[in-house]
Specification:
Rossmann fold; five-stranded parallel beta sheet; single chain; globular; alpha/beta
Length: 208
């Protein structure tokens, strides 16, 4: 895959990943609070599937009813139920979305380069799975105990533990993230403890 940032004249691009409920979004917010830009691949994917989004017609053609609605929009809840219960369907969706998200990321990195930024992050829960680790200089993984992650998502999304575990099963496990990441942030404690770990990573990167 084409690198999102070239070595010369571009910001250093770091990856940020973590499974559902790990606290990746909290770390991303902390980075933004330190004036470090973060591209959110999940948000980009959501925008692509909203009415008028670039992926709507392709997703509708690939999945049909009940995902494709008569007005031309997508039933995103139905789409989520399909892809989190069927690995083949999830693969079809990823083949549509990943190239479009990567194109959005390249445009975003170019914009940050024009601003003179020196350090940026690409946040993606499927960073390793999509091969995006090859597009970044290093990867920061946010991990937490499974039961903690399940509890957080149940409380946040008002869903069931079974539904959360199904989504977790569709993602890389923390054991593999620990092996493959360059930096690990553990998020089983307080926000203050999490913030201290983020600062330590930035210090080691020379961005603190």
């Amino acid at each position: 895959m084409t690198a999102l940032a070239s070595p010369a004249g571009r910001p250093r691009l770091l990856g940020l990943t973590g499974g559902i409920g790990s606290g990746k979004s909290a770390v991303a917010d902390m980075l933004r609070g330190r004036d470090i830009p973060v591209f959110d691949a999940d948000e980009a994917a959501r925008a692509l599937t909203l009415p008028g989004g670039k992926a709507v017609s392709a997703v509708a053609a690939a999945f049909g009813p009940p995902v494709a609605l008569p007005d031309g929009s997508l039933d995103r809840a139905a789409l989520a139920r399909v892809v989190f219960s069927d690995p083949a369907a999830r693969g079809r969706l990823e083949r549509i979305l990943h190239p479009l998200v990567d194109a959005e990321a390249r445009t975003w990195v170019e914009a940050r380069a024009s601003e003179g930024r020196t350090l940026c992050f690409l946040a993606a829960p499927l960073l390793f799975e999509a091969g995006r680790d090859k597009q970044v200089e290093a990867v920061v993984a946010v991990v937490a105990e499974e039961e903690t992650r399940v509890r957080r998502v149940v409380e946040r999304d008002r869903t069931t533990p079974e539904a959360v575990r199904a989504r977790m099963a569709a993602q890389l496990g923390d054991a593999e993230r620990l092996v493959r990441a360059d930096f690990v942030v553990r998020n089983d404690g307080t926000l203050e403890e999490l913030r201290a770990q983020v600062d330590e990573v930035l210090l080691r990167l020379g961005g603190g």
